[in-house]
Amino acid sequence: RPAELLIEAFGNVTLVVRCRSLEELARGVDCVQGSLGASLYAARDGRDDEAFAAIAPALVHRAGRIIENRMPTGLAVTPPMQHGGPWPSAGPPFYSAVGMPWTILRFARRICFDGWTEARLPEIVRDAAPAGLPWRYVDREWTRG
Q1: 31: helix, strand or coil
Q2: Could you say which of 99, 103, 133, 134 is the most buried, measured as most Cβ atoms within 10 Å of its Cβ?
Q3: Do 74 and 25 form a contact (C-beta atoms < 8 A)?
């Protein structure tokens, strides 16, 4: 657990960690500091759903952009995109280089669930979200919940 391995790096860097159990993986994720992005790889056929559900919530508190089954390369400049994250990846966690107008960022910390399957998303951000939600931006279209 050398401190150098916990520092965020920009550019081509890969760190592979083998864990003997889901509990060991969860302890490892707990060591990660705030980051702009985090990738979580899981089988899409349901085999990894339990592990995904156990680890994803910890990443939500550690990264501004959480990507499923992809590397964090490229960044779409769109209203829902977040390019900031919790300390130390950004000063105040709501600063972002792209995304919604800065005024929104004063009141909420946004999180981008990039490439996640519909079933794994928090219910409130699924395409078929519960009725009564305020305005949402889905597939380049504003809709009212």
Answers
A1: coil
A2: 99
A3: no
- Whether the predicted pLDDT of 53 surpasses 90: yes
112-114 and 135-138 as β-strands: parallel, antiparallel, unpaired? unpaired
Name the residue ranges covered by the structural domains of the chain: 3-129
Q: Determine how many CB atoms are found less than 10 A away from the CB of residue 25.
A: 17
Tokens 């305020």 locate to 134
Alpha-carbon dihedral of residues 70, 135, 36, 41, nearest 10 degrees?
A: -30
Tens of pLDDT, residue by residue over 107-126, are 566 788 999 998 999 887 88
Average pLDDT over residues 37-48: 91
Return the half-sphere exposure (C-beta side, CA atoms, 13 A cut-off) of residue 109.
16
130 DSSP 8-state letter: P
Please check whether residue 69 is in contact with residue 116, taking contact to mean a CB–CB distance below 8 angstroms: no
Q: How far is CA 54 from the centre of its chain?
A: 14
E strands in the chain: 35-40, 63-68, 112-114, 135-138, 141-144
CA distances from 126 to 2, 57, 59, 86, 139 (A): 38, 16, 18, 23, 12
